[in-house]
Structures are given as C-alpha cells and as structure tokens.
C-alpha cells in the first residue's frame, strides 16, 4: 500500500474532527446530549490542539532569529537585502490593498447588513464576551507612529521573551548586518556578484584577522542553530494530524453551525471575498509576477495551509510555512526574510475581514457610510491588519480601532463573535497563502528562482 503523505493525514484528521464534532454540537443544542458534556469534549479538543500549537510556538522565536541572522549573513552583498526588503514591503502593501478592495466591493454588492435583525444579533452576542481592548482611543496617526517606533526593541531579550515579533525581526536583521560588516569589512557592501571569501578580504593585521575569524564563528553558530531548528520543526510537524484533529473537534463541537442563522449573510460575504482573493487575485499574481504554477505551489503549501486553517494562527504556522515554501523551490535565505515579516505584518485575510465586518456593522446600525468614510475604514483596516498579531482572534481585537475610526460603538464587535472562529480559520489560511506567494514573487525578482517555475501538477 502506498504510504499516505502528511497532508493526507492532516486532511483525514480534519474531516474526522468535523465528523465527530458537528453531530455532537447539533445533539447538544437539541438537548439530546448533555450540553455540558459537549462543552467538555470541545474543551478537550482545544487542549489537545493547544499542545501542538504550543510546540510550534516554542519554535517560532529561535527559528525567526536564527533564520533571519543566517539569511542576512548568507546574502553576501548587503544591498541585496535592501532590495529584498523594498520588494517585500511593496508586495505586502499592494496585496493587502487588493484584498481590502475585494472586501469593500463585495460588501457593497451583497449588502449583508441590510436584512440583518439587530435584536437577533444582540441576543447572540450576549453569549460571547466582547474582547477586552484598550485601543479605542488611538487615532490613525498615533497608531502608525506607534507601529513604527515599537519596531525598535528597548531590550531584544525582552522582545524575544514577550514574542514581540517586529522587535525581534528588527534586532535580528541589524545583528546579521553587523556580523557581515565585521566578517567582511566594507568591501562586502560594495562589489556585486563576488562571494564573501576573496583575496581582498585578507587581514591587514592580527587584530583585524581576529575580528573576522570571530565574526565568521558567530555566523557559523547561527547557521548551525538554524539547521537544528529546522530539524526540530520537521519533528513537530509530524504531530500536525493530532493537533489539527483537536482543533477541528473544538471548532465543530464548540461552535457548530447554528450561529450562521443570524450571521449567515455576513459570514458568506467574508467567505466569498476571501475566496476571490485566494483563488483569483493571488494565483494571478503568482503566475504573472512569480512565474510559478499556482497549483503546484498550493500542493507544496498544503500542510501549512491546513495547519493555518485549523490552528487560526499564522504565527504558530510559521515553521511549517517556511518548510513548505522551500519545498516549492524558494531558497531559504529568501523565505527566512520574507516569511517572518509576512507572518507579522502581512495579513490580507485579516484586512479584508476587518472592512467587511465593520461595513456590515455599519449597515446593521443603519449608518450609511459615504465613500470618504469607507476610505477611512479601508486605511484603518490596513493598519489594524499590520498591527494584528498572528494569533487566534487578533484581528477581532484590532477591529475596535476601525470601528472607532468611523464612530461606531466598539462593543459592536460582540455582534459578530459567534462566527468568528470559523472566519478566523479561513482568514488565517489566506494570510499564510499570501505570505507564501510573496516569497515566490520576491525570490523570482531577486533572481533566486529558476526561469521556469514548477509545472502544473497533472
Ligand atoms: N488569526 C489570524 C492570524 O493568525 C489573525 C486574525 O485574527 O485575523 O493570521
């Protein structure tokens, strides 16, 4: 018998989780099964999945630090780093803007809030505690400024301990750059196309030689560290089917489908818009700007996408994303740079969801937002998605910023919480899919991919 691949196992366990959880939820709601028992089973699933997610999260900080440092030091010419950074940011901003546009168009077209019953929504909201946030007093400019300054960690070790991703990324890049400076001296910045070991790098005196040798040692330390982290990642990934089963059981038994009665049109709008972005916009970008077969890329990315779906955490999925993107042919020195940044700031799915949700809430409250107000929603949603952490429900918490930007009550977040888990799963998948597309496109433009991308699978 042919051995099943990992993504097949993940798919099977996802289906199993749903097949066990959904009937339970249904029976629990009808009173044929003790609702308390259903809740405990859902909680058990969450605990099981939580162990897998914790294992992945355990890898994230050391993986990001070692991959970024070894990626930057392995780049040889540091100007390449600047170009890579520029292209990555342009990609991230433009795809998020496209996602937002898709959301705005669909919410105006489908008008999901028009027929919604506020009383029914409020009754549903009663069952869910609104997330606690203190961001409602933040203006647009203040938010942008905060994002920028918080990139510089006051204490890199504290940033690592607190999982402050932007701070970790910033420090790792700077450290990588300076390791290169010390190892290769100024020449490393100047001449393009030459490797790090050149005759001209010969030490001028003993002191200089000692510095270079030590810096080379530091570089090799991080390279080795990264290799070990990747091996650990591979080992943890093998547990994905168990973790995914647990999370699916939690989502299906704990949340079920009944919430869709009141919020069906809203959830459908988010879902259709996410599908347009994932199945039309991003594949087109992959094909046209990445020269890559979207199907072949999706196949390589399947374990990461399924994990993103079930865990609802793009940060937790990062170790898998890095592994799968390499499978798709992107060299690790590009993935090392593009993906940690993407998991932190590039959230197309979240940005799209924020606009649809806020415009839906405005429609429910009978507020007619004109074009300029919709533009404010779109801009704040972009910032909110950049600021959202790659963890479950982070986008929902950030939504208060968007709501308050157009004067909507921040407590209105409660209205849509009932379907938030399933939408979070969908948007996280799109977030990871977009990061992976960025890695392909940026690698292609940096000349790091073969002229012919992989062929479409039969
Ligand atoms: N859960 C999402 C992610 O990890 C963020 C969000 O809540 O939208 O990418």
Can you tell me about this structure?
With 458 residues, the chain is mainly alpha-helical. The protein has a single domain, classed as Orthogonal Bundle (Proton glutamate symport protein). The protein is 75% helix and 0% strand. The chain is built from 18 helices and no strands. Helix 13 runs parallel beside helix 18. The chain is globular, with a radius of gyration of 23 Å. Aspartic acid binds next to helix 13, helix 17 and helix 18.
Q: In summary, what is this structure?
A:
The chain is mainly alpha-helical.
Structural category is mainly alpha
Strand content: under 5%
- In helices, the fraction of residues equals over 70%
Quaternary status of these chains?
Answer: single chain
Number of domains: 1
Topology:
Blueprint: H1 6-30, H2 35-73, H3 78-110, H4 118-125, H5 140-149, H6 156-162, H7 165-184, H8 187-190, H9 206-237, H10 240-255, H11 260-290, H12 294-311, H13 314-327, H14 332-345, H15 348-364, H16 371-387, H17 394-405, H18 420-445
Helix pairs in contact: 1-2, 1-10, 1-12, 2-7, 2-9, 2-10, 2-13, 2-14, 3-11, 3-14, 3-15, 3-16, 3-18, 7-9, 10-12, 11-15, 11-18, 12-13, 12-18, 13-14, 13-18, 14-18, 15-16, 15-17, 15-18, 16-17
Bound molecules: aspartic acid (ASP).
Residues 312-315, 347, 350, 388, 390-396, 424, 427-428, 431 line the site of aspartic acid.
């Amino acid at each position: 018998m042919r051995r099943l691949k990992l993504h097949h196992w993940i798919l099977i366990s996802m289906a199993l989780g749903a097949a066990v959880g959904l009937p339970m939820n249904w029976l629990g709601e009808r009173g044929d099964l003790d609702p308390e028992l259903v809740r405990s089973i859902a909680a058990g699933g969450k605990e099981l999945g939580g162990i897998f997610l914790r294992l992945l999260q355990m890898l994230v900080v050391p993986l990001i630090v070692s991959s970024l440092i070894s990626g930057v030091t392995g780049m040889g010419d540091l100007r390449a780093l600047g170009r890579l950074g520029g292209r990555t940011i342009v990609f991230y901003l433009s795809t998020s803007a496209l996602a937002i546009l898709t959301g705005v168009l669909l919410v105006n077209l489908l008008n999901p809030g028009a027929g919604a019953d506020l009383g029914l929504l409020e009754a549903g909201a009663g069952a869910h505690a609104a997330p606690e946030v203190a961001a409602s007093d933040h203006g647009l400019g203040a938010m942008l400024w905060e994002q920028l300054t918080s990139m510089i960690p006051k204490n890199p070790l504290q940033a690592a301990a607190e999982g402050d991703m932007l701070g970790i990324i910033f420090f790792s890049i700077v450290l990588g750059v300076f390791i290169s400076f010390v190892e290769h001296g100024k020449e490393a910045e100047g001449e393009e196309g030459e490797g790090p070991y050149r005759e001209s790098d010969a030490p001028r005196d003993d002191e200089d030689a000692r510095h270079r040798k030590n810096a080379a040692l530091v570089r090799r330390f991080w390279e080795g560290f990264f290799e070990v982290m990747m091996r650990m990642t591979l080992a943890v990934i093998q547990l994905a089917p168990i973790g995914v089963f647990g999370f699916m059981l939690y989502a299906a038994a704990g949340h079920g489908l009944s919430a869709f009665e009141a919020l069906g049109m809203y959830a459908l709008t988010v879902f259709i818009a996410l599908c347009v972005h994932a199945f039309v916009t991003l594949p087109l970008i992959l094909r046209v700007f990445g020269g890559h077969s979207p199907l072949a890329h999706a196949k390589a990315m399947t374990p990461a996408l399924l994990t993103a779906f079930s865990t609802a955490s793009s940060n937790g999925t990062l170790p898998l994303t890095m592994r799968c993107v390499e499978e798709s042919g992107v060299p690790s020195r590009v993935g090392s740079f593009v993906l940690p940044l993407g998991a932190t700031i590039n959230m197309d799915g979240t940005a799209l969801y924020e606009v649809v949700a806020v415009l839906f809430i405005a429609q429910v409250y009978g507020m007619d937002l004109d074009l300029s107000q919709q533009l404010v929603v779109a801009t704040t949603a972009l910032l909110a998605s950049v600021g959202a952490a790659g963890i479950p429900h982070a986008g929902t918490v950030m939504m208060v910023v968007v709501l308050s930007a157009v004067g909507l009550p921040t407590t209105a977040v409660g209205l849509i919480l009932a379907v938030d888990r399933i939408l979070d799963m969908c948007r996280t998948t799109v977030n990871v899919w977009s990061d992976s597309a960025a890695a392909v496109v940026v690698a292609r433009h940096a000349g790091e991919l073969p002229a012919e991308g992989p062929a479409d699978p039969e």
